[in-house]
Each structure stands twice: as C-alpha cells, then as structure tokens.
Amino acid sequence: MSTKGLGILYGILGVVLFSSKAVMVKLAYQYHVETLDLLMFRMFLSLPFYILILFIIRKKRPTVEIKTKDYLWLLAFGFVGYYLASYFDFLGLNYIKAGLERIILFVYPTIVVFLGWLFFKERITKVQTTAIIITYIGVVVTFWNELELVGNEALIGGFLVLLSAITYASYLVGSGWLIPKFGMLRFTCYAMIVSTCCILIHYIFSGDWDLFQYPLPVYGYGFAMAIFATLIPSFLVSASIERLGASNFSILGSLGPVSTILLAYIFLAEKLTYWQLLGMLIVIFGVTYLSLNRKRKALR
C-alpha cells in the first residue's frame, strides 16, 4: 500500500476509534458512574503505555534545543487540551446524546479560525466566513429540535461540549509550534501525562476516593476508552497527519459525527430526527468546505 493509502487508512481508523469514546461514556453512565471517576479510569489506564513509549524513544533526542519556556507551554497545553477539553466533554455527555456531542465538537476547525484571528491577527477570508456561517446554521438546526424535547438539559450539555471544542481548538492553535520541537510522539506522551496529573489533583480535592464501588462493566468501559478511544487513535492520527498533512487529514474528520451517530444507533439505540440529520449534513459540509479551502490555499 502506498504512503498516501496508509495515511488514509490510519486516519479513518483513528477518527472512528476517537468517535467511539462518546458511546463508551454513555454506556458507562448507565451504571451511574461519577464523571470524574470515569475520567480517572480513562487517563490512568492509558498512562503506563505513554510512559513506556517515552522510555522506548528516550535515546532519540530532539533536533532543536528545548528551552524552559517550551516546557512551561507544554504544561499549559496539556492542561487545556487534554484535561479541560476531556472534562467538559464528559460533563456534557451527562445531558445530551452521543451523536449530538460529536456534531458540536466537530465545529472546532471554525473556532481555530476565530482564535487565529484573535491572537495572531490572521485575516478571516470570505470563504472562511461562509464556511463558519454554514457550520453554525447546521448546529442551530441540529439543536433546535433537541431543545424542544429535553429543554434546559440540552442547553447545558451543548454549552459544556462547546467549551470542550473551544479548549481543544486552543490546544491545536497553541501547540502547533511546539510539536516540531519535541516530536509528535514525545509531545503527545508528555501532554497526556500532564493531563493525568491535572485530573489527579482535581480528584484529590473533589473526588470521593471510592473507585472500587462500581460494577465490572464500568472498569471494562474505562479500559476500552483508555486503549481503543485514547491510546491507539492518538498515534493513528499522528501517523496519518505525518503521511497526509494536517489539511488533508482534517477532511477525514468529517467521518467523526457520522461514525458516532452510527455507533450510538447500534449500541445506545439513539435515534436522530430528520431535522437533526439535516443539521449534521450542514455542519459536515461547512467544515469540509473550510478544510478543502485550506488545502487549496496550502497548495498555492
């Protein structure tokens, strides 16, 4: 298989596995597990593997000098990108369906454009403005029916997942210049370790220290999230970006909402209305339109 073919295969697998996380969270919530406990299971069960990978690549030195401020930025982005984004996402899933969660999270490329304009004075083009408007029309169409069905819960859940999208977009915008310094593998491992430490600190102050009270399936879902929805896809996505480039990979991200909705239909019996399906298609079109424009811009 060609390098491009492998990149597409890795990207599809990574996106689908990442998308399965929301379904696993909803399945675990059926056993009334606390949000912070579930997040602890996910991060701590994946932590040994990231430490092992760091040990394996320890002799591979960075090609550029890494300064103290780089490590400080790494701490900040590990806190924002993996701890806060995950925590807001897990909280939001208490209130909304897995399919809706993925649709809201999928708007993060438009937030990246906003943040680039806000902090780096990057101009927002007419094409980007069009894509952003289309995307948010899709979100409104998707959410309107849900708001009528479950009221304020959908609003609370949607807001929390939107916060997750904002923090993840902040991580993408800010960490882009650090990844070449540390290397993709080392940066990902460090960021995940920082996130795990943040969750532990949070748990020290807010947890009930009763992690062994749950039925066996909860720990099974925690392990599955750690391995199949965190560890494996994090490196599949890295491998895909390495072979295809970030612009091409972002197009594959369109599979995220679709795969989540299909998995939620199979495992959670979640059903979306025709209006919600229409909204999903509008969101996917808007983000794909934005991604394709970036790709054309990069080729010029």
Textual characterization of the structure:
The protein has 300 residues and is mostly helical. It has one domain. Helix content is 82%, strand content 0%. It has 13 helices and no strands. The longest helix has 29 residues, at 216-244. It is globular, with a radius of gyration of 19 Å. The model has no long low-confidence stretch (mean pLDDT 83).
How does the helix and strand content classify structurally? mainly alpha
Shape: globular
Strand composition percent: under 5%
Number of strands: 0
Number of discrete helical segments? 13
Taking Cα atoms only, what radius of gyration do you get, to the nearest Å? 19 Å
How confident is the prediction overall: mean pLDDT? Answer: 83
Low-confidence stretches: none
Question: What profile does the largest beta sheet have?
Answer: none
Query: In sequence order, what are the helices and strands, one letter per element?
Result: HHHHHHHHHHHHH
Q: Give the termini separation.
A: 28 Å
State the helicity in percent bands: over 70%
Query: How many structural domains are formed by the residues?
Result: 1
